[in-house]
Amino acid sequence: MSRIWTKTTFPLNTGATIPAIGLGTWQSKPNQVREAVRVALQKGYRHIDTALAYGNEAEVGQGIRDSGVPREEIWITTKLDNTWHKRVEEGIESSLKSLGVDYVDLYLMHWPSSTDPDDLSKHLPDWDFIATWAEMQKLPASGRVKNIGVSNFGIRNLEKLLSDPRTKTVPAVNQIELHPNCPSPKLLQYCKEKGIHCTAYSCLGSTDSPLAKDQTLKALAEKKGWSAAQVLLLWGLQRGTSVIPKSVTPERIEANFELDGKSLSEEEMKQLDSLPDRFKVCGDAWLPIKVFFGDDE
Ligand SMILES: NC(=O)c1ccc[n+]([C@@H]2O[C@H](COP(=O)([O-])OP(=O)(O)OC[C@H]3O[C@@H](n4cnc5c(N)ncnc54)[C@H](OP(=O)(O)O)[C@@H]3O)[C@@H](O)[C@H]2O)c1
């Protein structure tokens, strides 16, 4: 499966196509992300992932403008924050204003939790993510949002969303944590059956990744003559998921995009599929409700 990954896109159920490789921006420190976005776009990235909750949309917008790459060539994803579920219209307007753009390509519900803005330990008593989705469904008609999707939805919450009569639009994307220590094969299969594309977040295992110590990964990267990050990104891409590695280090931003013509054999994919360790970077303990019910659920 040797491909020109930097030009590869994955089709969505809306007819749009999402670039396979994007730049993540969570935890990028102030004054770092503007430069990271510029470097990435000038290197050839055409997909940037941000969120209202990251507090960096304005800087991401500046980086986009610094790059000189025309807006229409770039895929921008941003996300509705948990405490904004009752304020979808305000949420998208805030993101567009911060980013300095007229539209985003993808607007995601960041988490299936309608958190009380006045008390983060509480879920709103009179609202849930189905009601949020009903509001989000109205957005594409205005042209300010090209595609809508969800994030951090396991099978249980997707079932709930898709079976509700208020749901008229199947999410185009489910952005979820995916790496060899959190592979969620059943969730991927479920999304495939429903026509929902999956984007892999924390695809390198995130900050101080435990995967850096994995001996199977290390040996495989050495054998191929590639970095461990490149191996992890290929594993994600070959599973049909888009990947959004975050880096603020120019050399890493560049190396993470040097994947063209590289591929893992079926045997090598299987080796990574069968790593025994399991961890999740983003659990649900900090939310007022439980949203994960096991690896895929
Ligand atoms: N929807 C959600 O709830 C959600 C949750 C988490 C993440 N996300 C999105 O997914 C993106 C990616 O996830 P993530 O930020 O958790 O983690 P990640 O992309 O898996 O890993 C980022 C970490 O890896 C380092 N790194 C990057 N390239 C490297 C390389 N070639 N070699 C060695 N280290 C490398 C980065 O360091 P430096 O930056 O210092 O180079 C950073 O510490 C986020 O930024 C965000 O956009 C979404």
UniProtKB/TrEMBL annotation:
Residues 21-275 form the NADP-dependent oxidoreductase domain. Keywords: Cytoplasm, Oxidoreductase. InterPro entries: AKR (IPR020471), Aldo/ket_reductase_CS (IPR018170), NAD(P)_OxRdtase_dom_sf (IPR036812), NADP_OxRdtase_dom (IPR023210). Substrate binds at H110. Its main location: cytoplasm. One of its GO terms (cellular component) is cytoplasm. It is found in: Cytoplasm. One of its GO terms (biological process) is alcohol metabolic process. Belongs to the aldo/keto reductase family. This is Aldo/keto reductase. It comes from Westerdykella ornata. The lineage of its organism: Eukaryota, Fungi, Dikarya, Ascomycota, Pezizomycotina.
